[in-house]
Design brief:
mainly alpha, 4 helices, 81% helix, elongated
Length: 129
């Protein structure tokens, strides 16, 4: 897959996750009073925006595929985290044992990866367009 397509796939996925976050927030506000559901919704919306930002940053990075991979990992992780919480809250079962903690831990790793890549970019020469 080309870097260009990967960036737009991340943007597409971010859009879907942002919409899911808003929908889940509405469910939490109007149907099921649950702090866990509110957290899952907020995490989806925050990380949807982060995915868009990371996809944009990758366009001018020296290692654009690494930035894009970190963004993709982040979106998979937040889907796992929030999806498991929502499924458990609304249907009473988990995707698999420890799905939310695995997703949350992977989110932390993806954020650290973004931070390290940004530090590397900040200390190196700028990529010419």
């Amino acid at each position: 897959m080309t870097e260009h397509r990967l960036r737009f796939l991340i943007a597409f996925t971010s859009g879907l996750l942002g919409a899911a976050g808003v929908a889940l927030s509405a469910v939490a506000a109007h149907r099921v009073s649950s702090a866990s559901l509110e957290t899952a919704a907020m995490m989806l919306m925050v990380h949807a925006g982060a995915g868009l930002a990371i996809a944009s940053l990758s366009a001018n990075a020296r290692k654009p595929r690494l930035f894009a991979a970190a963004g993709a990992l982040m979106l998979v992780a937040v889907s796992l985290f929030s999806g498991d919480i929502a499924l458990n809250t609304l249907a009473g079962f988990h995707l698999f044992p420890m799905a939310a903690p695995v997703g949350g831990s992977t989110l932390i790793v993806s954020w650290i990866t973004v931070a390290l890549l940004a530090a590397i970019e900040a200390t190196g020469a700028r990529r010419e367009p």
